[in-house]
């Protein structure tokens, strides 16, 4: 047999190119939940932080989609049970369309971030003068991100939003047929949704021109601050935008985790910058399970995990080894840190009768899509995944996220993982198995001699701060002392002799930090009452015998007092 030529080898080894329609699952079909209006609109709006360089005071449009949007866009949203704009979407709509501003949006996952840039783009383009787009290669809006899965989702959401408006949307990404994409561009491309690699190729080949660009969106912008290929690609793409186009270009950066600007301010037009910060999702109930060092191993943690999964099954009226064809109404995503552990945990849970699937980078795109589709359709109860699933995936009916492992960049990853549940008005729970050694849980030694901040205490403080300030929840008991001791460490390093570190804790954590003070006072009072109770019991035993009838009355009175004391505590 003749050896294959170099050209044939490439064809042989190359991945099969998928059709765009084959890439998507039901990832974009999450409809608004029952708490959509109350939680996502009323509770969040007043907590938004807004800043601008131009000193503008934007007029925030009405939340009712029929009052704020063109009728066709409104009806398309209503078909997904969305009748009210989220606070993020109301801000971006007025800032991008009415005020011609560049926008940096820091919004926790689950706040409608994708529609927050698609809606103003669609409204702005529909207001533009009509033009012939039958053979146009010059998009008016460009949306870039670093992953194909995220862009496929964005593409489908955009298609649903602009259906019937005449606006054309084109997806430009790798692992899909290039000729099909070129044909789509030839038909017209008002909005291009792209990954950077394929976009660079099309720009070099002059299949696309950015001369007419009006909107430029960087989704998951925090990835740019991490350097690497994505940042280099973005820098190269920027060279294809003419200076005269940049002068009028509205740049939009969207991220769920970036607290600082990360150098993005250099990319904004002078006097045209504004910042919108949206707090964490109040619909997520966070639960922390502290794991002692002796239990910090897969054997013990997997038992805890199975207990959590069994409880989720009981809520649905089911159990393990259930052979019924009924779909799972409540789904669970389990995040682990390593691909090897991901595969092991999947096999382990299946051995005990749990219906689970595994998705990680070792699997082909087709395999991942097959598993995710089964999960979306309710054929399996739980999906075990690495952090490749933590960003961008909008999977319907995920009611529980379990962090089996915490990642190295704990807080950023924690936010993305938790965002897979409680989306657009639905409720959800995020349970985290937290290692005592990694976060100094309960931290009973406040006098550790250090020359710099203990990173474990710092992580505990950051997590506690997020739960209180962003999510409006109380600090879990296991995080209270390490968070407080982290503040004390900072004070000692700064040379500040503060008699009452609790005031600093209150400034750092908000009013909920009073819980720490209150908790310690209650514990002291509880110990005091225990001693008093013990002393009373000793006195009772030494006293003379009491008639049975009187003894019963005194016991009842004693029980009433103890009950009242417990209620007061």
From TrEMBL:
GO terms for cellular component: cytosol. The keyword Transport does not apply. Residues 517-539, 560-569 have a biased composition (Basic and acidic residues). Keywords: ATP-binding, Helicase, Hydrolase, Nucleotide-binding. Residues 94-259 form the Helicase ATP-binding domain. One of its GO terms (molecular function) is nucleic acid binding. It comes from the Eukaryota. The keyword Nucleotide-binding applies. Residues 316-464 form the Helicase C-terminal domain. PROSITE patterns: HELICASE_ATP_BIND_1, HELICASE_CTER. Residues 1-23, 517-569 are annotated as: Disordered. This is RNA helicase.
């Amino acid at each position: 047999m003749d050896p294959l030529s170099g050209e044939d080898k490439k064809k042989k080894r190359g991945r099969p190119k998928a059709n765009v329609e084959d890439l998507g699952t039901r990832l974009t079909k999450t409809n608004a939940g029952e708490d959509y209006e109350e939680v996502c609109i009323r509770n969040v709006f007043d907590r938004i932080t807004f800043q601008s360089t131009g000193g503008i005071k934007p007029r925030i449009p009405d939340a009712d989609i029929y009052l704020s949007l063109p009728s066709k866009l409104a009806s398309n949203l209503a078909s997904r049970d969305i009748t009210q704009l989220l606070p993020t979407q109301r801000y971006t709509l007025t800032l991008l369309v009415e005020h011609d501003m560049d926008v940096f949006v820091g919004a926790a996952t689950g706040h409608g971030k994708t529609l927050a840039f698609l809606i103003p783009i669609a409204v702005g383009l529909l207001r533009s003068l009509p033009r012939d787009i039958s053979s146009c290669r010059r998009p008016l809006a460009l949306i870039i991100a670093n992953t194909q899965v995220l862009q496929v989702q964005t593409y489908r959401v955009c298609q649903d939003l602009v259906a019937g408006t005449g606006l054309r949307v084109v997806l430009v990404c790798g692992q899909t047929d290039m000729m099909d994409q070129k044909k789509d561009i030839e038909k017209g491309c008002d909005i291009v949704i792209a990954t950077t690699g394929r976009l660079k190729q099309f720009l070099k080949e002059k299949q696309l021109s950015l001369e007419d660009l009006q909107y430029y969106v960087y989704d998951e912008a925090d990835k740019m601050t991490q350097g690497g290929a994505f940042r280099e690609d973005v820098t190269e793409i920027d060279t294809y935008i003419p200076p005269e186009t940049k002068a009028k270009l509205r740049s939009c950066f969207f991220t769920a985790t970036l607290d600082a600007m990360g150098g993005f301010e250099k990319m904004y037009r002078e006097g045209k910058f504004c910042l919108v910060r949206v707090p964490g999702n109040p619909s997520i109930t966070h639960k922390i399970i502290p794991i002692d060092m002796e239990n910090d191993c897969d054997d013990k943690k997997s038992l805890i995990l199975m207990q959590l999964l069994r409880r989720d099954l009981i809520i649905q009226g089911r159990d393990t080894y259930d052979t019924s064809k009924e779909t799972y109404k409540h789904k669970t995503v389990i995040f682990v840190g390593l691909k090897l552990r991901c595969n092991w945990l999947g096999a382990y849970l299946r051995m005990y009768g749990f219906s689970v699937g595994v998705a990680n980078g070792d699997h082909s795109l087709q395999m991942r899509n097959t598993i995710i589709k089964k999960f979306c359709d309710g054929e399996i109860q739980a999906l075990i995944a690495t952090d490749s699933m933590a960003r961008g995936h909008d999977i319907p009916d995920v009611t529980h996220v379990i962090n089996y492992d915490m990642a190295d960049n704990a807080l950023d990853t924690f936010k993305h993982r938790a965002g897979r549940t409680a989306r657009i008005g639905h409720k959800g729970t995020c349970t985290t198995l937290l290692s005592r050694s990694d976060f100094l849980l309960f931290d009973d030694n406040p006098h550790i001699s250090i020359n710099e901040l203990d990173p474990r205490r710092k992580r505990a403080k950051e997590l506690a701060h997020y739960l209180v300030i962003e999510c409006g929840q109380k600090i879990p008991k296991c995080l209270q002392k390490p968070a407080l001791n982290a503040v004390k460490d900072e004070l000692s390093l700064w040379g500040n002799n503060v008699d009452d570190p609790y005031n600093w804790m209150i400034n750092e954590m908000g009013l909920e930090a009073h819980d720490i003070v209150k908790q310690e006072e209650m514990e002291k009072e509880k110990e005091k009452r225990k001693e008093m109770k013990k002393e009373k019991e000793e006195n009772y035993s030494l006293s003379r015998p009491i008639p049975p009838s009187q003894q019963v009355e005194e016991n009842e009175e004693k029980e009433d007092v103890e009950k009242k004391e417990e209620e007061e505590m």
